[in-house]
Design a protein that fits this description.
Elements: H1 8-23, H2 28-57, H3 75-79, E1 80-81, E2 91-92, H4 93-103
Antiparallel strand pairs: 1-2
Helix pairs in contact: 1-2
């Protein structure tokens, strides 16, 4: 399975727009750009989920698939996933995985 994601340039722009939105708000053109990038990200997330469901339906043990993010996250990031701004909102990764498995 090849995980689809927005390219690095768009991700950097999305991060910048989110930061600006939290700090001072976005202008109309920036908000439109933000929505376009977010829509693309959501579309890719759905496509990835659909591909996982197809693999699972065909008998593939999706639990044994390699995780494409393993090489990019530190052990601390694997322990908790947060919104980068408020550590009190951190969610244990294992809980997130369990919740996702229930939905698939």
């Amino acid at each position: 399975m090849s995980v689809k994601k927005i390219d690095a340039e768009k991700q950097a722009r999305l991060d910048a727009l989110m930061d600006k939105d939290n700090e001072e708000g976005l202008m109309e053109e920036e908000r439109a750009e933000f929505v376009l990038i977010m829509d693309e990200g959501h579309r890719l997330t759905i496509e990835n989920a659909e591909e996982l469901l197809e693999l699972r339906a065909s008998g593939v043990d999706i639990e044994k698939l390699p995780n494409p993010r393993e090489d990019t996250l530190t052990p601390e990031e694997w322990t908790l996933v947060d919104d980068r701004r408020d550590p009190s909102t951190a969610i244990p990764v294992e809980k997130m995985k369990a919740d996702l498995r229930k939905r698939i």
